[in-house]
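Input:
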Amino acid sequence: MRRHHRRIYSICYRFTGNRTESEDLSQEVFLRVYRTLGSYREAHGGFATWMTSVTRNLLIDHYRRTKRDRVTDSLEDKMPVVENKESVGRRPDEQALLGELSGQVQHALTKLSPELREAVILRDLQQLEYGEIQRVLSVPEGTVKSRINRGRIELARILQQMGVRPA
Amino acid sequence: MNWTCEQTELRLSDYLDGLLHPEERHSFDAHVNGCPRCTPLVASVTHLVQDLHTMEEVEPPPRLVYAILDKTLGPREATTGWAGFLARLRALASPKVAYGALSVAATIMVVLSASGFSWKKPKLADLSPVSIYRNADRQVHLVYARGTKFITDLRVVYEIQSRLRQDNEIPTEQQGPAPSSPDKKPGRTDRSPQGSPKQQNRANGLGSQLQILASEIPAPVTHFAGWMTGGRT
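Output:
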């Protein structure tokens, strides 16, 4: 548990942008893993991949439950960008803690649609291979690559709109 | 190969991952270098991916581990007083702890015995460092002396054996090869009749020598010598 809890918390935080919700969701992940450990099979991939899959499913369920509390969009839909309610009012110490650029990237991540957000988090922040991401998301590898590509481009455009210069 | 902006956008991740064929990469570079829309896009995405790869993992709060344990295994019961003490004792009732405790107790007993501590009449003064050192020193010297004496006594036994062997061979050398005789009894090497004075004197000489040697040797070694010589003494 100690080996995985940092990674799981990181995924939850990068997806939600909220520390309190990330803590709650991390506990839920381990509770679900603890209860369904009997259903784990090595044929489904490594244990870490299975845990990531459980985490991803919980994050999506959480997102759908709280969808009515926020409005998010993708630049592809050409709708006005609305601030993500979860990330509004981040504490100054949190901002300093994360680092300015890191905080801005985190803020921009929460503006992506969940499908693109999870693909970018798994590939570029968790350094998973395409095959592993395919097993976690249960979609074809072509779809994985397409989401990662679109997610990166949209994230770059959001950061440009926020006035963040690339390093 | 003509490369369009749509293709640039579509294959941008393949370009960053180095998955384009050389011809495709050449066309990609040629288009990007001359396109005012694609040049900033490729640059910004490239820098973004580099920043994402170097972003540090978020540190979870220290209490998260305990919160997870409470959620999965249930909250720990706060035990105080006798209930807490008995709960802690129960935790010690595992084979691992029992084996460890037994090993430690056995080691302490061996060390105390070697240091001269008397179990029948224990004294606190026996546990002082000075008495432990003196007793240990005495024990070491005693063991060394006994070992040395045992090895020396073994040499004596070997000498006895070799003398007995020599004495058995001497009658054969002095009288030459014995004539073949159908009546020759096995085991006898000389013609002197059994029980003759010559034989008896030799046996008596050997016996007196062995008695002198035996007086210098403790009983277990003499028994050992007797076993080695086949009970001749």
